[in-house]
Amino acid sequence: MPRVSQDHLDARRRQILDGSRSCFARFGYEGATVRRLEEATGLSRGAIFHHFKDKESLFLALAEDDATRMADVVAEQGLVQVMRDLLAEPAGGTGSAPGADWLGTRLEVSRRLRTDEEFRARWAQRSEQLTAATRARLKWQRDAGNLRDDVDVDVLTAYLELVLEGLVSHLAMGLPAEHLPAVLDLVEESVRRHRGS
């Protein structure tokens, strides 16, 4: 029997993550049945669970993958850009912007953190990545003279993370979003250093 290349295995894993992301976003964790995961990925349960031990491992890998993607955006452009990306394509949209993907996963992570103690323990090991990227970006901005210096970086990190959680909740409730880009402008302005003032 021929050996499968690592590139093929990596591509299959990516296919599973991408397909299951939309399934979890649309149906939630409980509603993402194996049948729905098969339909969303175009693969059999055997193929899916060859790469992931169980549905929880698949969801954690997906959430970790999204956290990595978000941390990459934070490192390049800051946490406010992640929030702008969430607004770019709200959940349930048909576009290809990362917003709907990230929002769906983020909402499900938030829900499970509140309701599932075992998940909370497993996720705690993975959740530091976005915080660390935000803190590093803010320190870099402070060193460049772009960030206000009268507030500790850890406080600014917590502030931006709270704004992110508030934005996620706002979008999850389906509340109007037309003023949110201006709100994010205000948030971004609030952490900037104002020279000469």
TrEMBL record:
Q: Known InterPro entries for this protein? A: DNA-bd_HTH_TetR-type_CS, Homeodomain-like_sf, HTH_TetR, Tet_transcr_reg_TetR-rel_C_sf
Give the Gene3D superfamilies listed for this entry: Tetracycline Repressor, domain 2 (1.10.357.10)
Keywords from UniProt, A to Z, are: DNA-binding, Transcription, Transcription regulation
Membrane as UniProt keyword: no
Q: What positions does the domain HTH tetR-type occupy?
A: 10-70
**Could you tell me which residues form the DNA-binding region?**
33-52
SUPFAM superfamilies per UniProt: Homeodomain-like, Tetracyclin repressor-like, C-terminal domain
Q: Which is an annotated GO molecular function term of this record?
A: DNA binding
**What is the name attached to this protein's record?**
TetR/AcrR family transcriptional regulator
